[in-house]
Each structure stands twice: as structure tokens, then as C-alpha cells.
Amino acid sequence: RIAAHLNPPNFELRREECRAKGGAPGFKVAILGAAGGIGQSLALLMKMNPLVSVLHLYDVVNSPGVTADISHMDTTAVVRGFLGQPQLEAALTGMDLVVIPAGVPRKPGMTRDDLFNINAGIVRTLCEGVAKCCPNAVVNLISNPVNSTVPIAAEVFKKAGTYNPKRLLGVTTLDVTRANTFVGEVLGLDPKMVDVPVVGGHAGVTILPLLSQVKPPCSFTPEETEYLTKRIQDGGTEVVQAKAGAGSATLSMAYAAAKFADACLRGLKGDAGVVECAFVASEVTELPFFASKVRLGRAGAEEVYQLGPLNEYERIGLEKAKKELAESIQKGTNFIKK
Ligand code: NAD
Ligand code: LMR
């Protein structure tokens, strides 16, 4: 006898029909790299998101186990697993949102750019799949170096004729959650009450917290500004060193990715006033990509906000950030163009 759970009747169709009748909004979300450190926790959090009706978990290893595990959670989303390149197209077909944490993480002593050689090729392959199977999906790119992988994705989509700059977003939310946490500590406030815009990019000096624009309005001494800026810029390295060779931020990153994905889904649903920082195609500076606050809507990043007034410390930081960002963006673009 075949155990019932190995040969289940097709309840899934009935569940999806039910949901359609109830008119409940349900989005189809794929996580590429779902068996990794970020991917597993992110899968858990997305399975808990009531806006998700279908969750596809894709990886080149271990996705069947992660899928079986997550699928026993009694939340709405239907979970399906996909293993290896031959199943990439099935994983992507029909998706509304694709979240990509696939790729290798840093070890102590490495920069994010040291990951370029391996992760650039992974991101290219996955984005070719997106262009072919769900060209209208919103893409949340987490794989490092984000300052280069987003330009890589853009070039892949341009080549395929599917590029929509509003639908490609590099995830910098972790910089914002760190900034809110560290600023909250200094001010003695619950980080939930704190809003720090973090602009530029996602590596070292390209991470530029705008402490002069913190909400609620407050002021910092030069020492506090220096301490907070450095701590936010080096937040990733702090975790890499503490993990001592076992990888980089996974749990806080999964939290940040889930928060950002939820914001994208609320935007797609038509909620008003959904604003997050993200690394996107931009005209805010002379660079083709830049992280700043964006308004998320049905079309993706519908509006990219200007930086607002900067103080002298931030203006100097912005110049440093732009110099490094320009090189990282060019490197990503060249990877596909040349
Ligand atoms: P990990 O090694 O734990 O997991 C990565 C997963 O990707 C693995 O399961 C691996 O099998 C999978 N993978 C590798 N090649 C793949 C392919 N071709 N297709 C699908 N899956 C593939 O790493 P992690 O800690 O989860 O980090 C993943 C990436 O996220 C790293 O590049 C890391 O630097 C980056 N990251 C970014 C941020 C950010 O703020 N944007 C924060 C933390 C980590
Ligand atoms: C982070 O900011 O934690 C990530 O970009 C991972 C890393 O390598 O620091």
C-alpha cells in the first residue's frame, strides 16, 4: 500500500478554487536558494504571510527536505519544492514575486566583492529563468555583491527584452533594520519607533545612513554620528566575524527580506503609502542605480524619492559612496555586456 501522504488527492486545486471564490488576495512567490541559511528562515516567514497563496522553494540541494518541513505549517500558502536546474522553469512559471538569496556568503577577511566571481554566474542563470518564465514578476535580489548583482540582472533582462526597472529591486532592508536598532540603542528608544533612511548601496562606505533625517527628529554629537555610521556600515562584517567562518547574517537577513517582500506584496495588492529603501534604477544621482526610499505599488517601485537635505558629513559620505558604487555597477554591467 502506498502511504496516503505520498500519493495525496489533489486538494490543492480545491484550495485555490476556494480562495478565488472568497476573493482573498493571494500572490505566488518563489524563493531561489531556499535551502540556504537565509532561504530556510525566509521560507518559514513567507509561509506565515497571509498575502502568499503559493510558495515555490527552489535550490540546487536539499529543497525537498525544506519543502516537506515547511509544508506542515498550518498556514494558508501551498508549498511546492523544486530541485536543480531542470526544475527551475517549473519553479518560476506564474510567479508574482521572486526572491533571490542564492549564492555563497562571506568568510572573515573577505569583502562582498570577493563573492562576485561565483555569485555573478548564479544570478545570471536565475535571472535568465525569470526572463523566460515570469518576465512580469517583481524580483527582490539579495545575493551579494548587491551593488553588482542588480546591474547584472538588469542587463540579463535587457538582453531578453523583458527589463522593467520598476520590478527589479536590490534588497537593502537589513541596513535599515540595523540602523533603526543601533540608533534606538543610542536614543534609548524602541527600534520600532525609529526610522533611519539608508541610501547609496549595500557594501562598506556605499551604505550611507542619513542620521540628519532620523524620525523622530533628534540630534547626535559628532562622536555619536561617527560611531553609528561606522557600526551601520560594518554591520555585515560584525556578523561575519562573530560567525567565524560559518557564514554571514542569515536570521536578521531573513527577517529583513520577509519585511521587504511583504511590503512589495502590499504594494502589488494596491495598498497606499508603502515606502521602503531599496537599490533600484534611479535618477537621484548621476549613477544608473542607487538605494533610496521608494514607494511600492502595483507596478513595483513606482516612485523613487530624492535624498532630501544632507549635512556636511553626509555630503562627504555621499561622494565616497558614489565613487565605489560607480565601479561596482560598471563591473556588473560589463559581466553581461562583454
Ligand atoms: P548559504 O550558503 O547558506 O545559502 C545559499 C544557498 O544558495 C544554498 O542553499 C545553495 O545551495 C544555494 N545556491 C547556490 N547556487 C545556486 C543556484 N545556482 N541556484 C539556486 N540556489 C543556489 O548562504 P546565505 O547565508 O543564505 O547567503 C546567501 C547570499 O545572500 C550570499 O551571497 C550573501 O552574501 C547574501 N546576503 C545578502 C544580504 C543583503 O543584505 N542583501 C544579507 C545577508 C546575506
Ligand atoms: C550583510 O550585510 O549582512 C550581508 O551583506 C552579508 C555580508 O557579507 O555582510
From TrEMBL:
<feature type="binding site">
    <location>
        <position position="106"/>
    </location>
    <ligand>
        <name>substrate</name>
    </ligand>
</feature>
<keyword id="KW-0520">NAD</keyword>
<feature type="binding site">
    <location>
        <position position="178"/>
    </location>
    <ligand>
        <name>substrate</name>
    </ligand>
</feature>
<dbReference type="GO" id="GO:0006099">
    <property type="term" value="P:tricarboxylic acid cycle"/>
</dbReference>
<feature type="active site" description="Proton acceptor">
    <location>
        <position position="202"/>
    </location>
</feature>
<dbReference type="GO" id="GO:0009507">
    <property type="term" value="C:chloroplast"/>
</dbReference>
<feature type="binding site">
    <location>
        <begin position="142"/>
        <end position="144"/>
    </location>
    <ligand>
        <name>NAD(+)</name>
    </ligand>
</feature>
<feature type="domain" description="Lactate/malate dehydrogenase N-terminal">
    <location>
        <begin position="28"/>
        <end position="170"/>
    </location>
</feature>
<comment type="similarity">
    <text>Belongs to the LDH/MDH superfamily. MDH type 1 family.</text>
</comment>
<feature type="binding site">
    <location>
        <position position="144"/>
    </location>
    <ligand>
        <name>substrate</name>
    </ligand>
</feature>
<feature type="binding site">
    <location>
        <begin position="33"/>
        <end position="39"/>
    </location>
    <ligand>
        <name>NAD(+)</name>
    </ligand>
</feature>
<dbReference type="Pfam" id="PF02866">
    <property type="entry name" value="Ldh_1_C"/>
</dbReference>
<feature type="domain" description="Lactate/malate dehydrogenase C-terminal">
    <location>
        <begin position="172"/>
        <end position="335"/>
    </location>
</feature>
<dbReference type="GO" id="GO:0030060">
    <property type="term" value="F:L-malate dehydrogenase (NAD+) activity"/>
</dbReference>
<comment type="subunit">
    <text>Homodimer.</text>
</comment>
<dbReference type="InterPro" id="IPR010097">
    <property type="entry name" value="Malate_DH_type1"/>
</dbReference>
<keyword id="KW-0816">Tricarboxylic acid cycle</keyword>
<keyword id="KW-0560">Oxidoreductase</keyword>
<dbReference type="InterPro" id="IPR001557">
    <property type="entry name" value="L-lactate/malate_DH"/>
</dbReference>
<dbReference type="InterPro" id="IPR001236">
    <property type="entry name" value="Lactate/malate_DH_N"/>
</dbReference>
<feature type="binding site">
    <location>
        <position position="59"/>
    </location>
    <ligand>
        <name>NAD(+)</name>
    </ligand>
</feature>
<feature type="binding site">
    <location>
        <position position="253"/>
    </location>
    <ligand>
        <name>NAD(+)</name>
    </ligand>
</feature>
<feature type="binding site">
    <location>
        <position position="119"/>
    </location>
    <ligand>
        <name>NAD(+)</name>
    </ligand>
</feature>
<dbReference type="InterPro" id="IPR015955">
    <property type="entry name" value="Lactate_DH/Glyco_Ohase_4_C"/>
</dbReference>
<dbReference type="Pfam" id="PF00056">
    <property type="entry name" value="Ldh_1_N"/>
</dbReference>
<dbReference type="InterPro" id="IPR001252">
    <property type="entry name" value="Malate_DH_AS"/>
</dbReference>
<protein>
    <recommendedName>
        <fullName>Malate dehydrogenase</fullName>
        <ecNumber>1.1.1.37</ecNumber>
    </recommendedName>
</protein>
<feature type="binding site">
    <location>
        <position position="112"/>
    </location>
    <ligand>
        <name>substrate</name>
    </ligand>
</feature>
<keyword id="KW-0809">Transit peptide</keyword>
<dbReference type="InterPro" id="IPR022383">
    <property type="entry name" value="Lactate/malate_DH_C"/>
</dbReference>
<dbReference type="InterPro" id="IPR036291">
    <property type="entry name" value="NAD(P)-bd_dom_sf"/>
</dbReference>
<dbReference type="GO" id="GO:0006108">
    <property type="term" value="P:malate metabolic process"/>
</dbReference>
